[in-house]
Design goal:
Largest sheet: 4 strands, mixed
Helix content: 10-25%
Structural class: alpha+beta
Number of strands: 6
Strand content: 15-25%
Length: 163
């Protein structure tokens, strides 16, 4: 396999994007919304620094106020992509298992959804461009790409010849 176009690390406590709960005003919000917002911000900031682009401002369908690029082309990659992430979570002191297989951590797909959304508008225009995705959840120093502390190693490849 070829080397990824982008590979970078993000340090911080990973947050999965999973369960929604309703407010008393009928709006939906993520059960862990505060942690999720911080995690996605760290991922986006690391991507901006590594890729060398800026995040679209304002975020939405309008053109970017910084570069006047329309939303549909404001990203480093415009075609289909492959995304792989090794998410390192903290090992609870009472856990002796080699891999996080307890209800104490988020499901792997929740981490993948949070990362996919965080990279939207920076690495790619929309996370629907991710047609090949993988998230590996591990404890520090267990997987070959695991970090020594909580965070994630993110790799992104363009997929050629699909269209």
């Amino acid at each position: 396999m070829t080397a990824p176009r982008f590979q970078f690390s993000v340090l911080g406590t990973p947050a999965g994007q999973g369960n929604l709960s309703g407010t008393r005003h009928g709006k939906l919000r993520h059960a862990n919304g505060d942690e999720l917002k911080v995690w996605r911000g760290k991922v986006r900031q690391a991507a901006v620094l590594h890729i060398g682009v800026h995040e679209r401002q304002p975020f939405g369908k309008q053109a970017c106020v910084l570069c006047d690029q329309p939303a549909k082309v404001h990203a480093a990659m415009l075609g289909p992509v492959r995304l792989e992430a090794v998410v390192t979570v903290e090992r609870p002191k009472t856990v002796t298992a080699r891999w996080p297989i307890t209800r104490g951590s988020s499901d792997w797909d929740h981490y993948a959804r949070a990362l996919g959304d965080a990279l939207t508008g920076v690495a790619y225009v929309d996370d629907s461009q991710v047609i090949d995705g993988r998230a590996i959840v591990t404890y520090p120093n267990v997987h070959p790409d695991a970090l020594a502390e909580p965070g994630a190693v993110i790799k992104i490849w363009p997929i050629e010849g699909v269209l």
